[in-house]
Amino acid sequence: HEEKLNFKKSKEVCLSYIQDAMLQKQWKRAAEFFTSYVESLEKDFSREYVSPSEIIWRVGSEILCHHSHGSVKEFNSFIEQMKTLGIRRYLKVCLEHAFHLLCNGLIDEAYQNLSLAESWRFGEQTVIQDKEMKLIQAYRGLLDYYNWSKQKNILLEHGQDGFDDLSVEHEMHSCFRKAAVSLKEIIKVPGVWDLFVKCYVDLLEFYGDHNEARQVLNEYAYNSKFPANPNAHVYLYEFLKRHGESKKSLISALKILHDIVPSHELMIDFNTMLQKSKKRKKRQLGLEVIFAALDYAGWKENVKAWNCLARQMKQIVISEKHLDWIKQEWNSRKDWWPAFHFSRYLAKRNWQKNESLSYEKALVAGILLGKECKYFKYVSHQGCKAQMKRFRVLKKFMNKHSLVYLRISG
Fold first, then answer.
1. What is the pLDDT averaged over residues 172-196?
2. Which sequence ranges form a coiled-coil region, renumbered to this chain (predicted)?
3. Which of 163, 268, 351, 387 is the most exposed, fewest CB within 10 Å of its CB?
């Protein structure tokens, strides 16, 4: 009993040493401790059968992937042992093996391994590992798509020269059928299947099955059983745009994307479409969309975003209609936007890096904070000093509409 306790303690200490070495990327040291760890397990439990722990598979794989003297041959040998000794983890190990081969550019070998795993059967374990089997089939389908894409490119490249090779075309259609079956099956399962969906839609579009492609993307984006996924709405929007769908459909797709990720790069497109709308509610939403995007640090120096905001705000000021829209957006931001966007430090930095950005921001700052705003004063002064016409025009515009700031600020 005491020996077992001592062994348990030494095993835990050894694992902590391995972990420490791996975190410090000391792969040789980690390998030495790992060897000792495995040998001690064999020695201590020589009279008992113990299946290899998942930790041996995970740690061993990681060390072999990064060790300076590691090779694909050694990794393959190790993984094959893990496959034969760990039935419950067989398919997971096969999948990781395929990933490792792909990372090393061994695509044919990866495909062969996935095909062998797909034919694996082991009593009740086959049913228990149904999810893993679906993943095996899905990744094999992904490689079928890759092969289809290669054959397609060969045909397209030589099409104008009268390329006529039935074997290439036959291989291409064969890959299409196999890929389509596997990819269609995996995307029925609720989950995040971005790459698989994109590949399947590409196959369908190439063969002109646009209705099926639309149905797949709608299901992926709107089925409540699937987790909320911004990319699903991006793919749907891009598909609708490619096929010249109505502005209403495009706006509907981007509205949901805005609700999930207000900082997404497509918010520029969304704002542009909304600004062009004849409906007042949509134009107001456009202002809300671009304000929300600029709440995020990643957008602070986005010239297009500031141009969108400046243009819409200028239209509102000139028409003197809907100033309440600006006021509504500004009320929740006036306590933090001045320091976040309109400090003198930012004015100086923006001017040095991008004069166009400075101009757009100065226009927005002048409307929101008045012509005495630090940002506006610095940028307009520098622009006029450099004798740039648009900055003189900007100054005149702010002088003419100086009372707008008071109405917005309340």
1. 94
2. none
3. 387
